[in-house]
Design a protein that fits this description.
globular; about 25% strand; about 30% helix; two-stranded antiparallel ribbon; alpha/beta; 8 helices; about 300 residues
Length: about 300
């Protein structure tokens, strides 16, 4: 409950991480440009390994909140059957805030002005080095690259906000469906169907242009990598509902992986998921008469609340 507003900083999550030491394995795996700790939380003792990271872009906090909701879920000892199923079959690894300097200034980039998700090849930022080293040390069966997308995206050509968008990361310009991508696709198909039961018409597929500098596209050469982009739900400015939805789908994903339920899911339905479409606006003022240098022009003015 202490993370009740979508803008928070490193100093807000450290007391929460400190509390996890009693039940989970917490390890500092490095520091940011400005010396803030970057932590890895390990839960479970199952054979299959799942690796998740959030806030590699500092201004994208929804999954970070959902991570701590999951930690509370495990600590509550409620729904014991679900928790035991997950933790006996999976070992989960979380980096809840990869870019603490960006979170502090509400910025996509780190303190050196580097977009961490464009630094896979050069590894000029300490945060990118930490992410890559950790991933290859774990070599997960699944990786989850958690982001917040622009809240204006629509679902295809509809006027529905894309509350969630999924992507099975690609590994080349040909968008080859290798075994890793196929498994990511199969899992996404199940999660898409789950999301549609809660927010029908508000789930999309993220644009899959190949980006050779990004982590997701490179990681997909080594393990299935699922991108989850949290958008916005109607009248959910603070992303409270989107956070809840992200948490719920994380639990479902863990259960699908723990019990191998994704393996029999077909690949084809993935390509029927509508992609992110046009930009939407909170308010549009049509046919506004506006004077510029003694001449009147007719304008449409679009306004977004952030």
């Amino acid at each position: 409950k202490s993370l009740n507003y979508k803008r928070f900083e490193h100093k807000d999550i450290i007391p929460l991480i400190d509390k996890l030491n009693k039940q989970f394995v917490v390890k500092q795996i490095g520091k940011s440009v400005k010396g803030k700790s970057i932590n890895l939380i390990k839960i479970g003792n199952g054979e299959k390994k799942v690796f998740l990271w959030s806030q590699m872009h500092g201004d994208e906090p929804t999954a970070t909140m959902a991570f701590f909701d999951f930690f509370n879920f495990v600590s509550s000892f409620e729904n014991k059957e679900i928790i035991d199923n997950i933790l006996n079959n999976l070992t989960l690894y979380f980096i809840p805030m990869l870019n603490p300097d960006g979170a502090e200034k509400i910025d996509r980039r780190n303190a050196a002005g580097i977009d961490l998700n464009r630094d896979y090849l050069r590894l000029q930022s300490p945060e990118a080095k930490i992410l890559k080293d950790t991933a290859f040390e774990i070599m997960p069966n699944f990786a989850f690259n958690m982001h917040d997308q622009d809240f204006r995206w629509s679902v295809g050509n509809t006027n529905n906000l894309a509350t969630l968008s999924f992507l099975a990361s690609i590994s080349d310009e040909n968008k080859t469906i290798n075994n890793n991508r196929a498994n990511a696709i199969k899992l996404i198909n199940l999660l898409f169907n789950d999301a549609e039961t809660i927010i029908p018409g508000c789930t999309a597929r993220y644009l899959d242009d190949f980006e050779p500098r990004s982590f997701g596209d490179n990681f997909s050469n080594y393990f299935p990598t699922v991108l989850i982009e949290s958008g916005r739900y109607k009248n959910d400015i603070n992303k409270t509902f989107t956070r809840k939805l992200t948490f719920t789908l994380m639990v479902k994903a863990f259960l699908y992986i723990a019990n191998n339920l994704y393996l029999n899911s077909p690949v084809e339905p993935y390509f029927d998921i509508p992609s992110n479409g046009k930009f939407l606006y909170d308010l549009i003022l049509r046919n506004v008469k506006y004077k510029i240098h003694d001449t009147y022009f007719v304008l449409d003015i679009c306004i977004n609340r952030e």
